[in-house]
Design a protein that fits this description.
The complex is a heterodimer of chains A (402) and B (668).
Chain A (H helix, E strand, L loop, with lengths): L1 H12 L2 H25 L10 H12 L1 E2 L2 H19 L17 H43 L2 H14 L6 E2 L3 H7 L3 H15 L4 H4 L3 H5 L6 H33 L25 H27 L6 H20 L6 H5 L3 H4 L2 H5 L3 E4 L2 E4 H23 L4 H5 L1
Antiparallel strand pairs in A: 1-2, 3-4
Chain B lengths: L1 H13 L2 H19 L5 H5 L1 H11 L5 H29 L5 H15 L2 H14 L12 H7 L6 H20 L3 H5 L6 H33 L24 H30 L2 H18 L5 H4 L3 H6 L8 E4 L6 E5 L4 H24 L13 H15 L14 E2 L5 E3 L3 E6 L7 E6 L5 E3 L9 E10 L2 E10 L6 E11 L4 E9 L3 E4 L4 E4 L10 E4 L3 E5 L3 E5 L5 E4 L7 E3 L3 E5 L4 E6 L5 E14 L3 E6 L5 E6 L4 E16 L2 E6 L5 E5 L4
Antiparallel strand pairs in B: 1-2, 3-18, 4-5, 5-6, 6-7, 8-9, 9-10, 10-11, 12-13, 14-15, 15-16, 16-17, 18-19, 19-20, 20-21, 21-22, 22-23, 23-24, 24-25, 25-26
Helix pairs in contact in B: 1-11, 2-9, 4-7, 5-6, 5-7, 8-11, 9-12, 9-13, 11-12, 11-16, 12-13, 12-16
The chains are: A mainly alpha (402), B alpha+beta (668).
Amino acid sequence: MIKLINYEMKKHFYKRSLIIALLIFSIINVMKISSIYQNNSLISNSDSSKWCDVYWQLYDEYKGQITHEKIQKLLSVYRPIEKQTADLTASRRMDNPDTYTGNVYSDYYLLTWYYIQPMEYAYMYQSTADDIVKRALENMIFFRDLGNKYKLNQNKIIAKLFSDRSITDFSYTEMYQNYLKYDFSSLLVLLICMYGLVSVFVVEKESDMDMLLLTTEAGGKKTIVAKLSASTLFISFICLWFWLLDFIAFGLVFHSFEAASSPIYALKSFENASVSLTLGQYSFLSALIKTAGTLVIGLTFLLISLKSKNALIPFIWNIILISILVILKETLSGSEHILLKVINPFILVENNELFSKVEFINFFGIPILSYLAASGFAALSGAILTLIIHKAAKKNVIAGRR
Amino acid sequence: MQTLLYEVKKMYIFQKGLIFIVLFIVMHFFILVEVDKPVNSNVEDNITQYSFYLDKVRGHLSSQTEQFLQEESHKINEAKVEIDKLYDSYYNGDITESTFIHERSKLEEVIKNQEGFDAIFEQYIYVREKPDERYFLYTNGWNALLGTENLDYFAVILILLLVSPIFCQEYENSMDSLTLTMKKGGRSQAVCKILLVFTSIIILCIISFAFTYLFYDLKYGLQNGSYPLQSLPFFSTSTKTLTLLNTYLYLCLFKLFGYISFSVLIMFLSVCMKKYALTLFTSVALIFLPFIGLDNSAIKYVCTGPLGFMLATGFFRGDQYRTDVFTDEIKMTFQEISVKCLMISFFILLFFVIFMIYLVIKLRSNQWQRLKRKNMPEKLILSSVLFLITIGITGCTHQSHYDTYNYSSHMSFQNDQYQFYVNESDSDNTQLVYKDLETGEIHDLVKTPMQSSLKMERTLYGNGRYIYYIKYHINKSELKDYVDRVSIIEIDTKNFNEKVIFERNTDLEKKLLMGTIRLNNKDAVLQNTGSFFLDNNNIYFISSDVRQVNRVTGKTKTLDIPTNANIAYNGKRIYYIGDRYQLSYYDTEDGTKGIVPEIITTKFFLDDTKVLFLNRLDHKKLYILNLQNNTVKKVLDKAVLDFRSEGDFIYYHDINDQQEYKIKMSDS
């Protein structure tokens, strides 16, 4: 069987064109990540202002554990600047020697966006989380009295999830902020998979080998299993390649792998995260979930091409399918129709929404967190797709008669 | 000639080209009809008033027009003040009815077209910055035609479907070498194929461009095509001297060139790659990756080959800047593409197109075609499953009895068990709370523990055991937080389960497909609603007007009802103070309007059986209208400033001493 899988791998995926595409796409990916840094980060070193230097210079002073002294020290720098800029009458000269960046307003913005606000958020997070736990506990009592078991369990999960949450360290999280919402590489992965997978069932029909294959002992069902396994390996490899590339490129481009040990809720957009992991762990989990989503979509590609004579029609259908999935995901993004959201496998590929909010699916009266529900749906649809492909492909007639 | 006919038959019949084209046209039409929303919906809503003024100022801004606009603005403002005074003197008995009607019709004539004037004035502010190149005209049509930067996905897919089989099909069937041995195969046939593709694309493009033009001409109207391009704000900074119509013609030519070069690219790739999968993959990657990957900068047009010309709009835009809110610095977002630069990229692409055609003919081939097997059923099932997913968001219907809604009590509601109200003691953090009438305990209505990313509107609406509130979701993924979604939540007070009955994106520009499709999002207006009420079919949002939104389809309709912070609904009729302070109603079932006879009021309160109102004909004394037998009775022989009704009690402010008093309904 392993030999068979190996043959299928060689036949469909060890192609020069695929390798070239992989390389070109990787370069495009890195370029895109670099452009994100230039466009999104205010401290990117391409900017003419001195924000980059000043930020990292100050960072050494304030990074690490948030202490009372550090806060006092930061405020003693910040308050005078805040006062000076408050009525917008301070000088706008760009070479003021008493400032960090040469301009007092620039100083004010830098400190506000990059130090005061993140530090305030981190410092206050514990009380925010405690508030949530307190409310959840109150709700538990309320819903118990009311006899609403579903809501009671929901609040139980929330109370447990948010207890003991606090952010103790201040670190540079901009890289993770951008990395975790980066979705261009998913598109590249889907395109490559689309190309690789569209010929898996078609190539033998194009050369009329499909009939011949059925006459061999390893043909028919065995070949299909081998094809499915090879495709799974291929998708996993492509995903692994791109997710790793993303992570490394983001780290290098943003000049920092720091904050890997900070909790995920250190990012403001993950304030209400539905998992309590560190950023490093979460990056890994997110990549895993993305791969699962890509696998389900990949299996759909295979199913679409199963009965086709050539690659044209399945390829067009694949494009339409991806467009529909993406549009559905986008129109429902942020929506509270959670069931509609989680049955779309694309939400696993772009999975921010599953983890940044605590949302539940009512599964026969049991509250299930949305990311678990989405994973469950994906596993189910993956299994169903595999089964359909297995059943629908041409059977080995000889093996069947024996 | 015969070869060409065979090729035509192959492309349109055997390869189902005709079916694809028909599908494309249907989809194109559907998208135009369904998705297109006017850029300036305000103008569309008040089109007659707007046209009234536009006809007076259309064209170049002269000193006369300028003077006219200034005077008109002054006149309208004065008339608005006068009309209020007039009503007061009429109901105080200072003037006779005939004088009143005469004066009023004169003033109303002045303010009749006020909404239209506001839109024109906004345009005037834009035009007067550069009066030489900005003209007054009706912009919605031209904006829809020229001011969008979307790639026509369906056209790309259609071209892929039509062009890629031209050569790929015969490689797939290994007919390529066979045809080379034939007399009419070879070079002449390759030329034939290329010509066929060109004519098909040209015809398709002409049909599509003409169709789009006609559609917008019929829907909005495309007058004044000879006005300068800069009259549209989208092209405000452009330095190219073009008229609107010329721009559209150039745009069509560029797009045509883009589509032709795209089709040449596909043919070239298919001759080189000899395989469907690789040809399609490469063509799709060459178009979509730069389109999605590159930001909306000028590079998207200049360095992307066919894509730039397929989009084409950017060639006409001017420099664009925006202020970075985080650093307060001005940044360039789009750099104008100069004519020189445009010509260079045009000729480079043209060179490549000719070179590719040369190579295709050199690597000429022939093809033999047979009918493809039909695989429709499986695919149909697959696609229908996907479409089914989108269907099925509807609100349930519960009630038969309808609790009357009054705007004056839009911040509170009471049912048998609870009293709900907006707690405003903390002005930064408005809370919706309720009091258990049995135990007197006060709880938060919104039970979600994670409240830091939510904001609640200061309004409540209740009906029986169901209570509704408006929730804004705050997006914190950027440096600055912003509201990205608004929803209406229904709470069943029996078990306090929450259900979303309505939700909308509030981003002004809806972006789809990773930001590549931008649509006008008219619904964004729903943000900052003062209050709302609903029934089984519709939700009504109250701001300065009433917007009726269908709960299932989401279709929005503005009802022409003045709200004046005094509006009521009993599940069938919306009551409001209409013309001449007459108590009027709008029937939501059949859409008709009417008045309640002989009730002139400045404030009213509706409940199931009666209307309490301040009688304007009797010095604002408090009266009651019994809706069952239509009798009017005086409740209080005192002029009242304001009143509210709570349960059995009426609280009122005496106009003389401004003190609040309480009377019991039954006593009166």
